[in-house]
Amino acid sequence: MIRTVGALVGAGDKAEALARSFEVRVTETASANKGAPRPRVYFEEWNDPMISGIGWVSELIEIAGGEDVFAHLRGAAAARDRIVSSEQVIAARPDVILASWCGRKVVPRQIAERPGWAALPAVANARIIEIKSPLILQPGPAALTDGLDAVRTALLPRV
Q1: 38 within 8 A of 32, measured Cβ to Cβ
Q2: Are 58 and 114 in contact (CB under 8 A)?
Q3: pLDDT exceeds cutoff 80 at 159
Q4: pLDDT at 158 over 80
Q5: Of 37, 45, 46, 67, which sits 20 to 30 A from 88 (CA to CA)?
Q6: Whether pTM exceeds 0.70
Q7: Confidence band for 1, pLDDT divided at 50, 70 and 90
Q8: Which residues pair with 135 in a beta bridge?
Q9: What's the rounded Cα separation, in Å, for the pair 151 and 149?
Q10: Pairing of β 50-52 and β 40-47
Q11: Hey, how many other C-beta atoms are within 10 angstroms of the C-beta on 35?
């Protein structure tokens, strides 16, 4: 998209440089996580009903070093096709829960208090982290910079 817009406005060279810089950044981030333990991640895009992350969010989780527990749903563009049940999340046993409720403030306590969730590694270890919607839920440069950084930081091991 960056290359297309750049070509349309006569800034093809600048657009190419920008696109390449994003490609390098993503490649370097993914390479930095090779061989490291990959925490299992549930990304909650909405809470009622519970909706897992859209495609690019799932990809960013993997680039940042995590394993999206619902990666098989990432090809579904429609939110209704990414609805998950509490039982599915419990069965997936995520180590980290990332949440971004489409412009609404995430309340980690509400997630932690769901029936049966206390035993989840993410809840037991207080690994419920909000990622602000503008950083992650809009495809584009912010997702590749600030969004990726936020996911990467959230997945870092706690010491």
Answers
A1: no
A2: no
A3: no
A4: no
A5: 37
A6: yes
A7: confident
A8: none
A9: 5
A10: antiparallel
A11: 7
Q: How far apart are CA 46 and CA 79, in angstroms?
A: 9
**Which CATH class for the 37-155 domain?**
alpha beta
Judge whether 137 and 46 are in contact, CB under 8 Å. no
**Per-residue pLDDT band at 109 (split at 50, 70, 90):** very high
If you average pLDDT over residues 67-72, what whole number do you get? 98
Mapping DSSP onto H, E and C, the string for the chain reads: CHHHHHHHCCCHHHHHHHHHHHHHHHHHHHHHCCCCCCCEEEEEEEECCEEECCHHHHHHHHHCCCEECCHHHCCCCCHHHHECCHHHHHHHCCCEEEECECCECCCHHHHHCCCCCCCCHHHHCCCEEECCHHHHCCCCHHHHHHHHHHHHHHHCCCC
* Domain coordinates in residue numbering, the chain: 1-32, 37-155
**How confident is the model over 70-89, as a mean pLDDT?**
95
